[in-house]
Design a protein that fits this description.
With about 280 residues, the protein is α/β, with parallel strands linked by helices. It contains ten helices and eleven strands.
């Protein structure tokens, strides 16, 4: 199994990244209870060899990006920080899509300032705003890329048809969608990523949908974890890595011990028979 993945042809990172959503306060709102612990967590992630960190301006909002700067700047050579724009947080319980070109420009430039970067290696539209034509939203991101503020463009929460539309507007190098052993609704998108060399960044690796069609697969993975004396989090992440060479999992946590446990997943292996049983 390949241990690295190349994004956009020129960014090679280890295939286990870190999702920096949960380093903020409860409900992904405000500062964490212990900001110094959050900074230690980020530094430990880099010490463990993680060189891909995913965040968004809506995490906090703004808190996750600020903590990444506080903890890691000046950034180690080779560290890729991916962020997202296109969702605003008027209140803790609200996640509102905003794909207006003016907002996306403002959001991208603000992320650059918070992260103290001259260029964002991977900038992703967080979700499609149904009130704004996708061509307008991604058209603005393409302009920001041409102006040198963005290195590569990714999309998040896109289905296969939406991905095709996006790729007609701008070169897309990655897709970040919900994906786990219980929820494989993005299999068509994953297949496109495999075929065309795009990175697939799965979020929510542990979720279980009630009555889902893959309940048997989850049970098989749970048995595998018990047999290996592993946590289900480790098993779920290892399964994602084994599932496809396009996968770049980004398990997130607010605790160093969980982070260290998650990184063990990169060394776990499945036999062909075990993968067949899980499906």
């Amino acid at each position: 199994m390949a241990t690295t993945i190349t994004i956009g042809g020129d960014l090679t990172v280890n295939r286990l990244g870190f999702g920096a959503m949960r380093i903020t306060g409860p409900g992904i709102w405000g500062d964490p209870p212990d900001p110094s612990a959050a900074r230690r967590l980020l530094r430990r992630a880099v010490e463990l060899g993680i060189d891909f960190i995913d965040t968004a301006d809506s995490y906090g909002p703004e808190v996750s990006e600020r903590l990444i700067f506080d903890a890691l700047h000046p950034y180690p050579e080779g560290l890729v920080i991916a962020t997202k724009g296109g969702i605003v947080r008027p209140a803790a319980s609200q996640w509102v899509r905003d794909g207006r070109p003016a907002h996306l420009r403002e959001a991208c430039l603000a992320s650059l300032r918070r992260l103290r970067l001259e260029r964002i290696d991977l900038y992703q539209i967080h979700a499609i705003d149904p009130q704004v034509p996708l061509e307008e939203s991604l058209g603005e991101i393409a302009r920001l890329q041409r102006e040198g503020f963005i290195r590569h463009v990714g999309v998040s929460n896109f289905d296969a048809g939406e991905l095709a539309r996006a790729r007609s507007i701008v070169e897309v190098v990655s897709v970040q969608n919900r994906y786990n052993v219980s929820d494989r609704s993005s299999d068509p998108v994953l297949a496109i990523c495999e075929r065309d060399g795009l990175a697939f960044i799965p979020w929510s690796p542990l979720s279980q949908a009630p009555g889902d069609a893959h309940a048997g697969a989850r049970a098989a993975l749970e048995r595998w974890a018990v047999q290996r004396e592993a946590s289900f989090s480790q098993a779920a992440t290892a399964w994602l890595l084994a599932r496809s060479r396009a996968m770049l999992p980004i398990p997130g946590t607010s605790r160093i011990e969980h982070l260290e446990d998650n990184t063990v997943a990169a060394s776990m292996r499945f036999t062909p028979e075990e993968l067949l049983e899980i499906g």
